[in-house]
Amino acid sequence: MGEKAAMIMRGRGSGHERRVTRPGEAVRHDVVLIVLLLAMVTALHLFTTSAPEMMSVHLLYRKLYYVPIIYAGFVFGWRGGLIVAVAASLLFGPHAHTSMGGLVGPHVDNLYEMVMFLAVGFLFGWLRDLDERKAFDLRRVSLELEDAYHTLEERAIQLVTIQHYMQAILQSITSGVITVGPDGSVATVNSAAERALGMSEDEMVPRRLGALFRDGGGLDAALRHVLRGIADRLVSETTLETMSGKTLHARVSIARMRDDQGRVLGAVVSIEDVSEVRALTDQLIRADRLAAMGELTAGVAHEVRNPLGIIKASVQLVEESGGDPKRMAEVTRVIKQEIDRLDHVIKALLDFGRPSAPALRPTDVGAVLDDVVLFTRRFAREASVAIEVERAEGLSPVMADADQLKQVLVNLVSNAVQAMGETGGTIRVTAYDDARDVYISVADSGPGMAPEVMEKVFDPFFSTRDGGTGLGLTIVHRIIDQHGGHIEVASAPGAGTTFTVALPVAKERGESR
Predict the structure, then answer these.
(1) What would the DSSP string read from start to end of 119-144?
(2) SS3 assignment, position 259
């Protein structure tokens, strides 16, 4: 409520805003005027004779008392009108009693006139007060509406300022930002998105998001998942082809928008062009492969040199044996063992260098786990290791080559068994999923790995076991990459090791990745 309305409310408590807001000098003038009027009318009565022929004049003078009474009611309300009416009655009463026939009997109309003085003074003053109250209420409501209008005007200015500020922020973002409504239609587009897609905002609004691309890389399907509540936020890297034929390697983030009541307002789609980053990444990968090739060459030389040395020494023993069958049989057995060892190294090397392309198809993870446990349970039991399997109900199928997936999991379980050595322990295999991926973790209760070991665990020819080729986990990593998934390892000395594989569910393949 404004300052003016507060002033009127303070005046309201006295019953008359006019009496509060009128200056004291004006009030004194009104009082003097009313007194003069009463005195003048009374003097007219007193100085006019009471002869019968002048009685009509006295009746006229009697009516003149209404002038100050009505004026007092108009100026001071019902209290002022009633006070002046009492004063007029007191002034008129004695004169009527002595000079106008009295107040009862044939001249009782004089008494009635005095009663009318009181009634008119009170009634006119009350009506005036009622009018003042209504006027006050109207002024108060008017001032409140004026204040409310000014408040709304200020809020509107603030909202426009905030809107311009947010628009400036949105336009300054280097990533393309597109907002869509609950139905998936485009609502707003920033300038970065216009440049990336080669279209103006007018061309994009209110089309559906998928209609902005020749090939959306599953963007429209991912948006539907977010709007339907399957996922609150999705982040993926995909290849987009715009309507102009431009190809974008983009990192896309889709997040759902809600209001204070939880209603879905739509989604925000952020498109970041990572073509340059991807090109730099490819260069780093090529450099890393060259470095890995150097390590590979050194590893092959080391792995091949030892068997060749043993074979050479064995051949020399054959030459020196003089044809002794027993000795020749012993030497040839050693030669065969070393040849098998070389074959194992070469086979692992070929698997690493030229892995066969996976035949991806919807695969039941539960069936794969059953086979893996069947393959490894006896080997684990001999090492006093128990295998426990826990999988979620209704596990989604994955896009995978079943044989290669079995190879991955058998390798992880075998490594876990060997890591626990002669102490035994427990391996827990867990499978669960979310809207996009199926996760398979293999956790052991073994000694764990030091940080410097964990950093190299996927490097080729790195092994902590005597006789190990160091290519098993490297091949595992390669297979998971070819499946469009990823593998992570968590470990600490004395706390065991957990490998977690994530593979895309069958229905998501090609949509959001």
Answers:
(1) HHHHHHHHHHHHHHHHHHHHHHHHHH
(2) coil
- Residue located via tokens 């009128």: 22
Count CB neighbours of 224 within 10 A: 16
The pLDDT tens digits of the residues spanning 128-137 come to 888 888 888 8
Name the DSSP letter for residue 212.
G
Kindly provide the residue ranges of all beta strands, DSSP E only, lying in 123-263, ordered along the sequence: 176-180, 186-189, 213-215, 233-242, 247-258
Tell me the mean pLDDT in the region 362-380. 83
User: What pTM, to 2 d.p., does this model score?
Assistant: 0.38
Task: Reply yes or no: is the peptide bond before residue 362 cis, omega within 30 of 0.
Answer: no
Q: Return the structure tokens found at 181.
A: 């409504």
- Give 238: exposed, middle or buried? Use CB within 10 Å, 0-12, 13-18, 19+: buried
> Mean pLDDT, the chain, as a whole number?
78
How far is Cα 442 from Cα 497, in angstroms, rounded to an integer? Answer: 8
Query: CA-based angle 486:487:490, to the nearest 5?
Result: 145
Would you say 424 and 418 are in contact if contact means Cβ atoms under 8 Å apart? no
What residue type is assigned to position 463 of the chain? Answer: S
The string of pLDDT tens digits covering residues 254-307 is: 888 888 787 888 899 988 887 776 666 666 555 555 555 554 555 556 566 666
By three-state DSSP, how is residue 186 classified?
Answer: strand
